[in-house]
Design a protein that fits this description.
Radius of gyration: 21 Å
Order of helices and strands: HHHHHHHHHHHHHHHHH
Number of strands: 0
Largest sheet: none
Distance between the termini: 33 Å
Length: about 375
C-alpha cells in the first residue's frame, strides 16, 4: 500500500478545524442533539475556511474561470459517484411523484437541491451544503471586489439583508430557490470573514476586541433564538444562526496557533491527513452509512448487546463508512490529479518523526471540502 506524507506548506490548523467539523457533523447525524451544533458550528467554520482559501486562489491566479473550474473539478467527481449509485437505486426502488427528467440536471451540477425520492432522502438531505458552496465559489470574484472596497459593509451586509428579504423576497416563490438564497446569505458573512483572514485584516485587530466581538455575537444569536422559542431552534432562524456562526469564526480565525504538538503525534497527525484527503467522501456517505447501519445491525443481531446495543450500531456505521472511504475515496485523488491511493496514510519520514519547532506553515490554496450539518 502506498503511503504519503502531508503536503509541504499545508496549514495544519486549517486541517484540524476541518477534521473537527467533519467529525462533529458525523456524530450529529448519528446523535442529533442540538447541543452538538452549539458547541462547534461546523458550517460557519467550513465556509470561513473555504472563503479564505478561495481568496488566496483568486489572488494567485490570473484566471478567475480557472479557479472556479478547479473547485468544480475537485468536488463534482465524488458527487457524481453518489449520483451514479443513488439515482438508479431510487428509480429501481420506486420514485413517488417522480420529477421531470430534466430536473436530474441538478445531479450533474447541484445549483439547487437535486430531486430525491423518500428512499434517498437521507442521502440527499446534506447536499444543501454543496449547493451553497458552489454558489459562493461562483460569486466569490464579485464578493471579493466588494469586500476590497468596503470591508465592514461587505461582511455585515448579508446578515442585514436577510430579515429584509424574509419580509419582501425578490426571488421566485419556489421553496428550493428560497432555501438556496437564504443559505447563501446566511453563510456569506463567514465566507467573507475568510477573506479578512486571508488579507491579514483579522490579525491587525486586537485579540481582546475580537474575543469580545465574537462572544457578543454568540450571545446575541442565542438571545435572538430564545426570543422565538416556537421557531424550532437557532438553526431555523437564519439571522440568529448567521450571527452565532460569525462569532465563532471571528475567534477561530483570529488566532494561528502552532501545530507542532500535532506533528509530534504521528498517529493523530495521520488521521488528520487521512480525513482531509477523504473529506468529500466522508461527508457524502456518512449519512448513508448511518441509514444502513440499522438494517445491517438488525441482521447481525446487535440487539443482543443489551444496553450497549447503540455501540453495536455505531460500529456497523463506522465499518460501512470505512468501506465507502476505501472503495470510493480514490475518486478524490483523481479529482485532485494526484496518485490514486486506497488509504492516504502519511509515510513516516525523518521530518515527521522528529519535527522541529517553528511557526505554522501558511495555508495552501487547496479548498476545504464540505462538512454538512
Amino acid at each position: 500500500m502506498a503511503e504519503t506524507k502531508p503536503a509541504a506548506g499545508r496549514d495544519r490548523y486549517f486541517d484540524l478545524l476541518r477534521v473537527l467539523a467533519i467529525v462533529r457533523v458525523s456524530v450529529f447525524h448519528m446523535f442529533p442533539y442540538a447541543l452538538l451544533e452549539l458547541i462547534f458550528p461546523s458550517m460557519g467554520v467550513m465556509f470561513a475556511l473555504a472563503g479564505s482559501l478561495m481568496a488566496n486562489s483568486l489572488q494567485r491566479s490570473p484566471s478567475v474561470m480557472s479557479v472556479i473550474s478547479s473547485r468544480l473539478r475537485r468536488l463534482l467527481p465524488a458527487y457524481w459517484v453518489l449520483a451514479g449509485v443513488l439515482v438508479p437505486a431510487m428509480f429501481l426502488y420506486g420514485w413517488e411523484q417522480r420529477p421531470p427528467l430534466w430536473h436530474l440536471v441538478a445531479w450533474v451540477v447541484p445549483f439547487v437541491d437535486p430531486p430525491s425520492s423518500s428512499f434517498g432522502i437521507q442521502a440527499t438531505e446534506v447536499l444543501w451544503y454543496l449547493v451553497t458552496y458552489l454558489w459562493l465559489v461562483a460569486l466569490s470574484p464579485i464578493m471579493l471586489g466588494i469586500y476590497r472596497r468596503a470591508r465592514l459593509v461587505a461582511i455585515v451586509a448579508p446578515v442585514a439583508v436577510l430579515p429584509a428579504l424574509s419580509i419582501r423576497p425578490i426571488w421566485p416563490a419556489n421553496e428550493n430557490y428560497r432555501e438556496v438564497a437564504t443559505n447563501i446569505l446566511m453563510y456569506a458573512t463567514c465566507w467573507m470573514l475568510g477573506f479578512a483572514h486571508r488579507d491579514g485584516t483579522l490579525r491587525r485587530i486586537p485579540g481582546l476586541l475580537v474575543t469580545v466581538l465574537g462572544a457578543a455575537s454568540v450571545v446575541a444569536g442565542l438571545a435572538w433564538s430564545l426570543q422565538h422559542p416556537d421557531a424550532g431552534g437557532i438553526k431555523e432562524i437564519p439571522v440568529a444562526y448567521a450571527v452565532y456562526n460569525a462569532g465563532f469564526v471571528l475567534v477561530l480565525l483570529r488566532w494561528s496557533p502552532s501545530m507542532t504538538w500535532l506533528r509530534r503525534r504521528r498517529f493523530a497527525d495521520g488521521w488528520v491527513t487521512l480525513i482531509n484527503a477523504r473529506a468529500v467522501t466522508i461527508y457524502l456517505w456518512n449519512n448513508v452509512a448511518i441509514a444502513l447501519c440499522f438494517p445491517v445491525g438488525d441482521a447481525l443481531e446487535v440487539w443482543r448487546l443489551g444496553r450497549f446495543f447503540e455501540v453495536g450500531y455505531v460500529v456497523v456505521a463506522l465499518a460501512l463508512l470505512a468501506n465507502a472511504v476505501l472503495f470510493l475515496g480514490w475518486v478524490e485523488d483523481l479529482a485532485a490529479r494526484k496518485r490514486v491511493r486506497f488509504l492516504p496514510w502519511p509515510a513516516i519520514t525523518e521530518e515527521t518523526a522528529s519535527p522541529q519547532p517553528g511557526p505554522a506553515a501558511p495555508p495552501m490554496s487547496r479548498e476545504p471540502v464540505p462538512a454538512g450539518r
